Amino acid sequence: MAKIKFIEADGKEHQVEAQEGQSVMQAAMSNLVPGIVAECGGFANCATCHGYVDEAWQSKIPPPDAAEEGMIACAFHVQPNSRLTCQIKVTPALDGLVVRLPVSQTE
Amino acid sequence: MSAFSGQKLDKIPAHVPPELVYEYDNARDPRLLEDPHARMRSLILEAPPIFFTPYNGGNWVVTRKKAIVDITMNPEVYSNAFLVSGHQSEEHSGEHKDSQPGLMMLPISADPPRHTAYRTPLNQPLSAKSVAGLETAIRTMTNELIDKVLAAGRCDFLSDIAEPLPVTLFMKLAGMPTNRLAEFRELATQATSATVDHASREATFKRIAGILAETIKARQEKREDDLISHLLDANIDGRNPTFQEMLGYSIALFLGGLETVVNALSFGVRHLARDQELQARLRADPSLLPGAIEELLRLYGIASTVRRVMRDEVCHGVQFKQGDTVSLLLPAANYDDEAFPNPEQFILGRKEQHQTFNTGPHRCVGLNLARLEMKVFYQEWLKRVPPFRLDPEKKPQFVGGFNLAISSLPLVWS
C-alpha cells in the first residue's frame, strides 16, 4: 500500500491508496482520477496516461525504457520529468509519490 | 481451414456445454446482412455472453465488453501469433509461429514482448501530434470530393466519398501511387471479404504483396518522406526490419488503412442521413463533433478480432481448451448494456470507452488518423452539403465478416 497524490493541471488534488504491484496509472483509474485516459490499458502504446513525476521522486523510480521513451515523445505538453504512469510500478518505497497531470492528454 | 468457409461442424467438441451453443455465421447470417449493428445488439439480447458457434470451423464468440477487455489484456493466454494474411492458418500456430515465412501481419500477428518491438516504430508517425500535420491535406481532399457531387444533389457515398478519401490519404501517407486507387480498393475488399474461397483469397494476398514489394524495393533504393521509408530505418531489437517484415507491416497497413475508415465513415453518415435533427444540431454547433464522432464510432464498430487459446483456461465461467479459437466481437461489445446504458441510443458525452478501436496492446495504431479524418470530413460535409437523407429508391447494401461493411450508400439532398 502506498499513498499517491495526483494534482490536476488546475491544481485540484486527489490522494489515492495504491496497491503494491499496480501501476500508478491503474491506481489513478481505479480511483477515477480525472485527467488520465489510459486508452491502451497499460502497454505503453498510446501516451494518454502521461504525468509529471515530482522532482523529489524522480531518482527513486527506474528510468523509462526505450518503448516508454518513444511514446513520451508522442505525448502532448512534454517536460523533462514526463512519464507514462502505466510504466511505473507501485512499491512501498513510493509512499507519498506526487504526480502532476498535463492540461490535456489528447491535444 | 479458412475462417469463413461457412462449413458447419458435424460434431460439437466435448468440452462445449449444449447451452452455450448458438448458431451464428459471421459472414452469411441473414439478419447480419439486413442490418449489421442491429444484429450485434440482438446477439447481446439473445445469445449467451460467450457462446460457441459451429459455423466456419467452430469457434467461441465473446460479445461482452468486460470479457473482451480481460482477454485482450492477457496476451499470454490469448495469442495473436497465428494470424496470417487476414485469416487463421492451422500450420502457422504453435512452435512454428516465429519461423514461418508466410505473410505475417505486423505488428498485429506478434504477441508481447515482440509485439512492442514491432509496434514502437509505428507509434510516433501515427501519434496524434504527428498526424495533425495532415489536417490541411485532408481538408483539401475532402473539399475536392464534395465539389464533384454537390451540384448533382445525390451521390453514392461509398464510391464518391468514403472510398476515395481515406484510401487516397492512406496511400499518400504510406508512399504508394494514388493513381491505382480503384485497383487497391478492389484488392482490399477482396482480401477482407468473408465469402471468397481460400484459393482466391491467397491469390489476392499474393497480388497485394507483389504491389507492396515494388514500393518497398523502390524505397530501399531511395528514401522518401513516407511511412515505408520510415519503417525501413526502424530499429527492431537492434536491427532494421527484414524484407519479409516490411511486407508484414505493409499488408497490415494496407488492410487497416483501406477497409476500416471507409466503413466507419459510411455507417456514421448513414446514421446522420436518418436523423435530420442530429444533422441540424451538428451544423449549428460544430464543437459537438468530436463527441458525436466518438458516439458514432461506438454505435458503428467495424472490425472484430480473433485470439488463439494457449492453455486450458476458464474465462467468465466458460471452459476454453488449448487451441480453441475465440472471436472477439468488438462491435457487439459496444451494445453491452453493462457498459453502455440504453446502448441503441445516440447519447452525447458517454464516459465509458467504446471497443471500436479495441483495448490492450493491439489497440488500433491508426486511431489518431481515423479520428482526424472523420473530424475534418464531418466539418466540411456538414458545412457545405444541405440536409441529406437516404435515397428512398435504393437501399444500402451490407457485408459481414471480420469487418462489417456497406457496399453502397445512395444519398440525396436538394
Q: How does this model look, in words?
A:
Chain B: This is Cytochrome. Chain B: GO terms for molecular function: heme binding; iron ion binding; monooxygenase activity; oxidoreductase activity, acting on paired donors, with incorporation or reduction of molecular oxygen. Chain B: Belongs to the cytochrome P450 family. The complex is a heterodimer of chains A (107) and B (414). Chain A is an alpha+beta fold and 107 residues long. Helix content of chain A is 17%, strand content 21%. Chain A has 3 helices and 5 strands; from the N terminus they run ββαβααββ. Chain B has a single domain, classed as Cytochrome P450 (Cytochrome p450, Orthogonal Bundle), CATH 1.10.630. Helix content of chain B is 45%, strand content 11%. In chain B, the strands form 5 sheets. Chain B has a 5-stranded mixed sheet with strand order 1-2-10-7-3, covered by helices on one side. In chain B, strand 8 and strand 9 form a beta hairpin. In chain B, helix 8 packs antiparallel against helix 12. Chain B is globular, with a radius of gyration of 21 Å. Classes of the chains: A alpha+beta (107), B alpha+beta (414). At the A-B interface, helix 3 of A face helix 4 and helix 5 of B.
